[in-house]
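Annex B, item 7. Sequence and structure tokens for protein A, then protein B.
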Amino acid sequence: FYGLSAATLAHGGMQAYPARYLTAIVMGAHGAFVLLRTLLFKLQMSLVQDADMVPALSQFVILEAIMALVLIAFGILMLANEFTHSALRRLAEMDPLTSVFNRRAFLTLLDKAISQARRTQSELPVLVIDLDHFKRINDELGHLGGDEVLRHFARVAQENVRAGDIFGRYGGEEFLLIFPATSLLPALNTCERIRAQVEAHAWKGLLRGKVTVSIGVTQYVPGESVLEFFSRADTATYLAKEGGRNQVVVEEPTRKGDPSVTVEPIPDEEDDLEPEATLPSPLEPERRFASSRG
């Protein structure tokens, strides 16, 4: 019993529940001692002629049992505390409907991803995904049916992202996705897979049309704020909706020193002066449609 309990407790991740290993070691050691103590008594009776040693061995067995029970009880209390802490943390970070990161947790992870991108000078695409005509979906399927649509979309998205990608629900029918240390092209490929799979899903019931998504994509520019970064992705999603929905739109900033920007030289004579050429700001968007419905 103790050995089986120890093996069961030890199964899992040390990082998730460190106290489980303390409890497992104590239970395993106690189980091994329980198996060996009969042999120990027989060996002691055959080798030791002193009768005073028998009570001493009995006292040692009782002491070991008491210490083992105390340590096991302490380990169980630690396990209960760790489990409660983990459950509370999950409730604080996860969206209860879709089981993805909620808004608060996602924004915290977004700050960390931006800090990492600054340190490593790596690329960082972010996506804003919005379900099209979600009010119509709720009207046709009811709120429970709308919840099922959200859950299905979350499953589709999670099946198409990597373990290191960060996916969360911003609110309502709007979701966010971060691709740490990823170039734009792989991010766009993932966007298109998600869009196509959501559109292709056959919904049963009263839903009269397909469920589609509009996706806005942008990349982080070193030095810009989180608000500028996120607003540009949100603008791309708005453009996807204005352009007919069910498509992916990229909103890329024009960087300083872009070779596509040219400035004519200003004449020396004041009479021939023409208005100065207006340069785009470092974050002026360059828009292009990555994909759209067929």
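Protein B:
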Amino acid sequence: GLSNSWVRCFYQDDLGFIWIGTADGLNRYDGRTMKVIRPYTSDNTGLGNVTVNALLKRDSVSIWVCSDIGLYSLNLNNEKMILDSIIPAHPVLAAAIDRKGNTWFGTNNGLYQLSDGRIKQIFSSRANDPNSLSDNYINAFCVDSDNRLWIGTRKGLNLYNEEEGTFTRFFSGTSMNSLSGNDIVCISEDRNGGLWIGSSLDGLDYLTIQDEIFSFRRILSGSIRSVTDDQKKYIWVGHSSGEGVHLIDYNEFEKGNLLVTRLSSDPLDPNTLNDNSIFTLFLDRFDDVWVGTFGG
């Protein structure tokens, strides 16, 4: 079984294996069995209690493993996980790769941009600079279809302006079109280029951009944790507070109607969710949606 029941992230490698990051260890699922993989120190001692926050392809033979004790590189051939000292060993919370091949890591202490295996830039929040990151604690990334990098932090949403090396900040506020909440934990682009933004306490927003005017519209309330969409035109929304998964019918949404179906756990039905508190959602290459919960 899983090394820990709190599932925090998923990744599918080029061979089709599903990698599952948990609150204690990394797991590889081959369709039948689960294999637990733990990092080793330089003197070959296995480490326990490693929380895996994000997984990202590094190259054809390795993946980045972002953990609470630093950034690891996992060799897929020998399945050895080694600490990579390219960035300091503080919690690495999120990872993304843009269309120019830059790799981005979000930590609890700023944003790192890697290019050609080296740190290219480090970005942080500066008190008197409104063009800097809104906060140093980074929860989530999204690289959209226009290759724009969106960064969700504990205090606001940021859009990276590559040419200037600056950030446009978005906060919750009193105006009709502002964000619903500031603790942004997930950002996802749907197949039509729409952006869905989830906050830890203040619900799910949908962003429309017209003539460089950004308008956020609240779609669902509650504690949102993860968002993805599937081939059947449903937006999957994972709630972390025991509300299960909500499916938004995108065809109806485009017509101006909000049609939502709730998936929840039923202890008497083994074909339902095993837990109603969702942490992560992942669409694999076979168009199956994996649901990671606090309980499996």
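Comment on protein B: Helices lie at 250-254.
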